[in-house]
Known about the structure:
The chain contains 17 helices and 26 strands. The protein is of the alpha/beta class.
Amino acid sequence: MPAQSSPHALRPTTPLSTSLQAVADLTGATSVAPVSAEVTVTGIEQRSNAVRAGDLFAALPGANSHGARFAADAIANGAVAVFTDAAGAELIGDVAVPVLVREQPRAVLGELSAEIYGHPSDRLRIVGITGTSGKTTTSYLVEAGLAAAGLSTGLIGTIETRIGGQRVPSALTTPEAPQLHAMFAAMVEQGVDAVVMEVSSHALALGRVDGVRFAVGAFTNLSQDHLDFHKDFEDYFAAKRRLFDADSPVAARTAVICVDDEWGTRLAGDLVEPVTVSTTGAATWQVSGDIKTTGGEQEFTAAGPDGELAVRLRLPGRYNVANALLAVATCAAAGVDPGIAAPALAGVDVPGRMQRVERGQDFLAVVDYAHKPAAIESVVTTLRGHLVEAGTGRLAVVLGAGGDRDVAKRPLMGAAAARADLVIVTDDNPRTEDPAAIRSAVVAGAHELPATERGEIREIGDRAAAIAAAIAWARAGDVVLVAGKGHEAGQEIKGVKHPFDDREVVAAALDALRIRHSPHTDSEDLTVS
């Protein structure tokens, strides 16, 4: 298959045709003008610049503008009809194509998209993974387990979308419904058997996964994030629940729930016969015995309904044990022999998740996507544990907070990082906000920790300079963590995305220091390129 410019460009090469009358019947929409029996649609798109000939243009109301304002562009690009609400129809006026009108068109967009693309998720084994942290890592682990069993897999997530060996960057953790069902149809066309996808709370709340038939839904955990979108924690939790509640149209046939936190315990308690996972107590799947750590690798025994399995990971951290255990249980729920899935986890690396950068230095440099208080606390604890195990060294953390996002978590992020020996607060993606104001909130949170419990706190706005300062600070046996952006290849400032990859900047800082190649034993063990 030829390379695609983005995951949203993935469509079947031989689309189905659906009569416009069938669209009207399915959605309960009325037409501004009589619907011709000859009009058929072969795709659906809500972005006017991505419309192809034969598409139905979904002109939806948005936060800042109504999609109907772009109907003329969509029609010029080949849209054969427009699907909108009454306000949109008024904005469109008289046009040369039929206009279907329905109140709250987004409410049926998922099912409509599924219909137009032939309900492709019915022919795929769809595994949806939701939660605050761990979705990406768990997705990669599950994909590896499914592939080990001989299944042709697809992956849809934060970092990339993959069909077999093809990789393309992801713009959203979960694409909008028209693009999602188009991708599923393309995957079916190419012989994919199973798809692993991250399912964000936004996607569940906004109906992006409506029309998807999930075989398995997995829950990782819940901690503070996205409270700029959700009114409170209960609203956030309610969005996640949509993947599991029996009365939800997107409820997975089988639920696999990690019960290591109170939210997972609560969710599992509300469901009928969920598969439960725990690293700390009794569950359907649990850890048996001690977790063994060597360098950055971990080994543990997973105890399931049919016995025990040895699991080995290249990924450090107790939270990755939870992710791995959840992955094994999820593969089993998807019909894969866990004895086949578990060994496949040993070779998994996840871009931007506890990813080591090695240039021959005698300390450990790690880039991680942690950008939520609980995630930062977990990775700091993990790296502290590495230092204790090694018997030497200090920890530096470089982090910032994103602009135009949940402001309440900023001081909590600072406090979570402040237990390091050095915290350098810098810019993340300030977006449209004042970077100094964001940094100030993070610094204030770091200073809330008692002086006896916190390390040195610095503020350096320029992210590259902050990273260079942390690298220059490090001595043999130390650890430098650059947190927040992980796999991202850009930094968004005032509406402009500038090229910026933490991994590349860390490597450049290491190269600039011309560090003599005399690696600490443990950092050599942890090397990942």
